[in-house]
Structure formats: structure tokens, C-alpha cells
Amino acid sequence: MRTSYGWPITLAVVMIVLVVTLIVGWVALTVRETEKSAAFWVLLLVGTLFLVLVLVGVVLYLLISIKGIRLNQRQSNFMDSVSHELKSPIASLKLYLQTLARRSVTEQQQANFYRFMLDDVERLDSLINHMLDAARLDQQPVETDIADVELSAVLRSCAETACLRYHLPIETIRLDVTPAILRARPIDIEMVFRNLIDNAIKYGGVEPVVEVDSKFEGDGSVVTHIIDNGRGIPAKLRRKIFGRFVRLGSELERSQSGTGLGLFIVRTLVKRLHGKITVRDRGNQPGTVFEVQLPARQASAEEAKEPSAPPIADPQDAVR
Q: Tell me, which fold does domain 144-305 have in CATH?
């Protein structure tokens, strides 16, 4: 989504014209005769109106400037994050390769090095794919890409992939899902729930436990909850986390990887699918609940048996 400069420039030009006109009008009033004719009151009314418009324009321009400053801050935060995400695996790969080239290591050490290097390559691949996903959000899906997607199969696939990525037992994610058919691009549904489930594990407790459930509502929609046992998100920041490049805290202090694009992608895709996403806490328990409501229909017996969600090729394509 590229920044448009047409609106601020147009607003600035209009304000300049209004100020010039206002000055000329007030000068004209001062050189007129002291008698307050009808023209005097007309000019006074027009001048007052122009003054109000200038004040409104100043306020709007101030709001646009503040928004631009915040966007620049988020972009700077994003660059810090991406720089770290690129530098760390590259430095790690360089170290392992130099060790293999200059020293004799055992077969077990070689196997460990290769495994660590593969993890670093997957981390780089995840970062690149995630940035490409964000860039593709501006492209509207074509009708040929739309298909029937069985939600419970997607949720199971995302859960298995997340557990595999973080080397966790499959019991870490507890599923209670209802077969449902969504009309959408399969990749869009996968990206939404891969990001949310990945976040639930990444920002969960010391021993993360994630609950995923889905059920039908009476208005022809399916509601899915992704529940974690982490520290939670303060109420005043729950809308902010869906912004582009937004990551809570300082880049120098955070321990989790990410680019600040994951939840932005989630919100954009859910909105495109005519759905709704909300965030709340778990009441007396620690953690966060992400609720995703999407239009859907109940799956038939045949559709519920057929796995409509293909295996996810890239298990690291979801980061906050």
C-alpha cells in the first residue's frame, strides 16, 4: 500500500489560497468607507467562513502530519526488526560454514551443524515469504482462485505445522473444531490461522498451551477462537497491534522474532473475507483470545471427510 501525497498537497494548496483570499478581503474591508454597507457584511461573512475553513485545514494537516510521523516510526521499527532477522541467521550460517571449512568435526557435530544451518535458512525463507505476502495484499483475488475450503482441515494442518516448527508435542494445541465450508482462496485462510496459531505459541507461557475451537453461529457464520496462556495484551493496545509494522515493546529488548506484519495481514484478509476479528483477555486466567468470525456454511458428510486443505509447504510463514 503506497503512500499517496495528493491529498496533503491539495489540502496545503487550498489553505494557501484561502489565506491569501482572506488577507485580500480584510485589506479591502479596511480601505472601505466606515459605513457598514451590505457589501461590508457580505465580505465579513465570507472572511469569517474562510477563517473557519483555514482552521479546519490546519487541524486536518496536523492530523495527517502526526499519522505520517507515526508511520515513519513504525517503518523504522520494521527496518530494525528486519535487519536483526537478516543479520542473525546470516552470521550463524557464516560461523558454521567457517567451522566446517577450517576444523575437523565429528559426524555428530556435522549433523548438528547442518540442522542448525537448515533452521537458519528456513528463518530467512520465512522472512522473505512473509514480506511478499504483505506486498501481495493489494492484489485482489480473481474468481478462479476462489474455492470451497474446509476450515477444520486447515486448522489441523496449521496446528501440526506450528508444533513441528517449534519442536512441540502435538498435544500442545488442543483442537475442538466443527467442519465448515468457507468460500475463499485457500492460501488466505491458511495465512490467517497460521499467523494466529504461531503467535499463540510464540507469545504463550513458558510451557505454551493453545486452545483452538470453532462453532457455527445462527447468522450463517463460523466463529473460531485461538486462545493462549501468555501474558495477555493490554486493552488499550488491542487495536494498535493490527497496524502495519506494529510490534509491542522495543526492538532492542524483545526476545521473539517478527516483522510486525503478521496481524496486519490477518486483519486485512479477514476484512477482505467480510469477517471480523476481535481480541480480549481470558478473564481470571492469563492469556489472550483471538476471535475470528467468517461467513460459512455447514459441511456435508462427504465434504467433512475429504481433506480440502493441502499440506503447508513453508512451516515458518507466520510471524508477528
A: Heat Shock Protein 90 (3.30.565)
